[in-house]
Amino acid sequence: MKDRYRGGNDGANNDAASPARPSTPATADSVSASVLVLERRPARSVSLSSDLRAVFILAALPMLAALLLPWVLLRPNRIAPGEAIHLPAVQLALGALLALALPLSARFAPRLLWLVSALALAAGFWWLGSRTTVALLGQMPFARASASSGLWLWLLGAAIGAYGARISARTKREGWLGLLWLLPVIYWILNGFFVHWSVVVEGQAERERLVQEFVQHLSLVGAALALALVKSSIVTTPRPVAATAQAFCQPSP
User: Fold this and answer.
1) Is residue 25 part of a domain?
2) What are phi and psi of 72, to 5 degrees?
3) pTM, rounded to two decimals
4) Domain count, the chain
5) pLDDT tens-place values along the chain, 253 residues long
């Protein structure tokens, strides 16, 4: 018995003391199997999903349609019918490139979506100011240049593209970069770039009346809000008072 146990321990010691056997070389089947396993692991994809790419296709369609529509409506006065003015060929080509760049960037370069959408929005406002300025050259002071359907359709598509770039941003920095188009627009507003737009012209002509109407509107809204608050405070009865009144009105047994 002792010899048998001693022999078993010696066998275990011999196995432990024996050198490790060299591993067999990997066969082609094992290598291909490991490659398949690595390929099946979810990699961090750079491209967007099909749903997000559809958003940018939806944004590009109204932008392309806007290039076929008039951008500015020139009228000799505020009552007479106007003349439709389209974009020139250079701006049409640039607009087509910006519109097509949205779905292409979503497919191949998603990190540039914020830049393309910001350029599209800024280009829309730039073309509004430049086209209204050119349209009023040599016109009478009563002439008005208003924005037409092409501008609003372009801004609609560009806004959809900016929304898609916002929700597809991988970092907060990319999300905030999509708002950079506000900087040139604010700069143009402060420097009078849209001074020939009919909305600005009418606003400057009727500035005093508009201020009076705005103040009157605020006063009416404030008075209505105050009356609603007073009425709600009168009608609403505090809970302790309501409970006391209910207990007092109940008949005694």
Assistant:
1) no
2) -135, 145
3) 0.61
4) 1
5) 444 444 444 444 444 444 444 444 445 454 444 434 334 433 344 556 777 788 899 999 999 999 999 999 888 877 778 788 899 999 999 999 999 999 998 888 888 888 999 999 999 999 998 888 888 887 877 788 888 999 999 999 999 999 888 888 777 777 788 788 899 999 998 888 888 887 777 776 666 777 777 788 888 888 888 888 887 776 554 555 445 545 545 555 5
Task: Tell whether 195 is covered by a domain.
Answer: yes
16 domain-assigned: no
Return the CA Rg of the chain: 36
Domain that holds residue 121: 50-208
Assigned domain for 168 exists: yes
